[in-house]
Amino acid sequence: MKTRILFLFLACIWQGTGLLAKEDENVESILQQAYDLDTSHPEEAIEKAKQAYEIGKGINDAVICSRALSFYARITMFEGDHELGLRLYLNALNFCPPDSISILADIYSGIGWGYTELDDREKALDYIDKSLRIYQKQADTIGVAISYNYKGFIYYRGSQYDRADHFFHLALDIFRKQDNQRNIAAVINNLCMSPGNSDEKVKLIQEAISINQSLGNMWSIGENYNNLGKQYYYLHRYDDGLLALERAKEYAQRAKAKNLLLENYQLRSLIYAAQKDYPMAFNAAQKQIELDKEIRSEKNIRDMERYISNQELLKLKQEYELQQKKHDLAILQKNWIITVIVLLLCLLLFFMRFRWFKKKKEMELIARQYELEQSQCRIMELEIKKKEETIGSIDNELQAAKEKLGYMLLFLRSRNELLEKIRNMIRETYKMEPFEQLTHLKKVNTFIAQYQMEEQQDELALQIEEQNRDFSKRLEEQFPCITASEMNLAVLLRMNLSSKEIALITGNSVKTISMTRHRLRKHIGLKPEEDIVLFLQRI
C-alpha cells in the first residue's frame, strides 16, 4: 500500500511535468512563428506574440511573458511606433527573471534600439553596451553582432558615419561567417543609409534585396530600395535613383509601411530638386507633408490607443501579479504538502530501518548467545567426557583394587581359619608324647609356611597406594588438615569397603575405624545427610 501511494505521487509529478513540457513546446512554436512573420506579416506576428503572452500568463511563466513582450515590442518598433515599442521592452524587462541572461541581453538591445529612435543616444549606448557585455561573456557571437549593429545605428543617428560604418562592418563580418542571411541583409541595409563608398554600397544593397526577396520580407525590400535610391542620389545617378524609389514605393504600399513612404517622398523631393524639376520636387514634398500629417494623426490615435493599451497592460500586469501570488501560494501549499509527505516517508523509512537494525541486533545477539551456548555445551561435553573417562578410569581402578582386596579379604578369612586350626593343632601337641611332639610341630610349621602373606600384603598395599596417588594428592590439596590414618581410610572408603573389611585389612578394630571415619567427616566438612563414599568418589 505504501509503495502504491509513493508510485501514484511520483506519477502525478511526472504527468504534470509532461503537460508543462508540451505547453512549452507549443509556446516555442508560436514565438518562432512571430519571429518569422515580423517583417512580412507584422499584424499576424503581433497576434502570435500576444497569444504566447497569454499562454505564459496562464501558466505563470515569467520567462515566456518576457519573451512574448519582447517580440511584441520588436514588431511594434518595425512598424514605427517607437514609444510603444520601448514601453513594451521595459515591461518585458520587468517580467524577465535575473537569471535568464540571454533573454535579458536581447531586451537590453531592444531598449537601446527604442532610445535610439527617440534620440536619447546616451541611454541607447548604455543599454546596448549592457547587452554587448553579456553576449561577450557568454561567447554569443550572434548577440555580439546584433549589439555592433545597434551601436552602428546609434552613431548613424548622431551623424558619426565613419564610426557607424565601422560597427556595421564588424557585425556584417560575423553574420557572414555564420551565413545568417536574414541579419546579413539587415546590416547591409543599415550600412547603406549613410553617404560614402556609394559604389560599393550599391552592390551591397542589391545583395540585400536579393536576400530579402528569397525571404519574402516586403517591408525590408521597400527599405532596401529606398536606400538604393539614396546611394544613387549620392552618386548623382538621379534617374536610377527615381527608378529605385518607384520600386520602393510599390513594396511600401504592399507592406502598408507609411514611414517608408514618408522617407520615399523625401528622397524623391531631393532628387527632383537636384534635377531642377521643382514642380515635381514640390509635389513630392507636398505628399510628404500630407502623409506626415496623416501619420501624426494616426500617431495621436495610437497615443490614445497606447494609453488604453498601457492601461490594459497595467491591468494585465496586475492580474498577472495576482495570479502569480495565487500561484506562489499554491506552490507553497503544494511544497508544504510534498514536504510533509517526504518527511512522513523519511520517518517511515527511518522507523523501518530502526526496526530492521534493532531486529538485526537482536538476531546477532541471539546468534552470539547461541554460539556461546554451543561453545559452552561443547566445553561441558568435553568436561563431561573427560570426567566420564576419569570416572571410568577410577571405576576401573577401584574395581581392580576391590577385586584384589576381595582376594585379600578372602585370604584373610582363610588365614583366620588357618590360625584357628593351628591353635587346635598346638592344643593337640600338649596331649602328645614328647617324641611325637617334634614330628607334629614340624607338620604345623610346614602348614604355616604355606600361608605366609607378608610379601603379598606389602605388594597389595603398594598397588593401592599407586592407584590412588592422584586422589590422595587432590584430597590433601583440598583438605590439608587430615591425618595419614584419615587419608588411608579415605582411600579405602573410596573403594566402597565396609568398616569390617577395612578393619580386617588394616588390622584395626571396627570401633577404631568408626572413630577415624567420624574425624574424617568433620575435617572435610560433610553434613550428616551426605554420603562420604560418594563425596570421595567425586574428588
UniProtKB/TrEMBL annotation:
Keyword set includes Membrane: yes
Coiled coil, from the record: 370-404
GO molecular function: DNA binding
Chaperone among keywords: no
Keyword field: Coiled coil, Membrane, TPR repeat, Transmembrane, Transmembrane helix
Transmembrane segments: 336-354
Source species, domain of life: Bacteria
BP-aspect Gene Ontology terms: regulation of DNA-templated transcription
InterPro entries, per the entry: Sig_transdc_resp-reg_C-effctor (IPR016032), TPR-like_helical_dom_sf (IPR011990), TPR_24 (IPR024812), TPR_rpt (IPR019734)
Signal peptide: none
TPR repeats: 105-138
Name of the protein in question: HTH luxR-type domain-containing protein
Organism field: Jilunia laotingensis
